[in-house]
Specification:
Blueprint (H helix, E strand, L loop, with lengths): L7 H17 L4 E6 L4 E4 L1 H4 L4 H10 L3 E4 L7 E3 L3 E9 L7 H15 L7 E3 L13 E3 L2 E11 L2 E9 L4 H13 L24 H17 L17 E4 L4 H7 L3 H18 L3
Parallel strand pairs: 1-10, 2-3
Antiparallel strand pairs: 1-5, 2-4, 5-9, 6-7, 7-8, 8-9
Length: 276
């Protein structure tokens, strides 16, 4: 493969790992939003496919970064028109289990979009990239998917939301990777993916504002009588960072020097996962 460049998405995952440690130690829960340049983010299953390294090299030569994440799931195609939402919370309430965490995130993505008049469904969309039980769709077409990473005392719940551009264009990036690999891999059908901008007038900044309001409110505004009575969430302190590139978010949170060391581990793990 050509000389490895560190994809922007690596910074975002390094930030998440550091914040998870801090939240587990008692820091406030964090909601942050980030974007990255054109990247195919692989799951570990994808990295183990026969021919994965060669398939990644093909994409790399076409200007698509390839990165292997440590959370679960399959390949996800992102770019500057995809809003990534990461919630980092203590392992309590609904976040004690994987299903509870996924269900909480999916429901709040759905409720955030109600003012736009979108009827959002939750459930696997066959033929989508990175299919899962908590896919979010409109009219049977997927616009968002979820992943999570669990560490001791904290949970990172991640959503990729296709906002601008088209869903089909991203699906074709994922499909091109699988076409050059062998083994058990999903069949990606571009026609079952959609971006929010194809459904209603919205751009990345507007989407970030919608989700920022929704998730901060969801974490803080627990109904009266439930805060100290085993309700869905304990009373939380929450930090929120507005949308920007992964590097912008890093600087806004004053984490650039600390995360640089973590980045070395992210880069090494990703490169090693694609070794044949």
């Amino acid at each position: 493969m050509a000389r490895y460049r560190v994809p922007e998405v690596a910074w975002a995952f390094a930030v998440g790992d550091l914040l998870a440690e801090r939240v587990a130690a008692g820091d406030p829960a964090v909601v942050y939003f980030w974007t990255a340049s054109k990247t195919l983010v692989l799951g570990m299953q994808d990295a183990r496919l026969q021919g994965a390294k060669r398939a990644a090299a093909r994409l790399y030569a076409e200007g698509v970064d390839v990165f292997v994440r440590s959370s679960g799931g399959r390949a996800v195609a992102i770019d500057e028109g995809v809003l990534n939402v990461t919630v980092v919370v203590p392992e309590t309430g609904p976040f004690r289990s994987m299903d509870g965490s996924f269900a909480w995130m999916a429901e709040h993505v759905r409720s955030a979009l109600k003012p736009l008049g979108l009827m959002v469904g939750i459930g696997e969309v066959r033929g989508s990239f990175c299919p899962g039980r908590y896919d979010l769709s409109v009219g049977g077409k997927k616009f968002a998917g979820l992943a999570q990473r669990r560490t001791r005392g904290a949970v990172q719940i991640q959503a990729f939301v296709l906002v601008e551009g088209t869903g089909a264009a991203r699906a074709k990036v994922a499909r091109s990777f699988y076409r050059f690999t062998f083994g058990e891999r999903p069949i990606v059908r571009p026609e079952v993916m959609v971006a929010l901008a194809e459904l209603c007038p919205i751009d990345l900044l507007a989407a970030a504002r919608i989700f920022q309001r929704a998730f901060v409110r969801a974490l803080v505004d627990v109904p009266d009588g439930q805060r100290n009575a085993g309700g869905p969430l304990p009373e939380m302190r929450v930090r929120s960072v507005a949308s920007g590139s992964a590097l912008d978010v890093l600087k806004a949170m004053h984490l650039d020097l600390v995360v640089t060391e973590r980045l070395k581990g992210q880069k090494a793990r990703s490169a090693a996962a694609l070794a044949e």
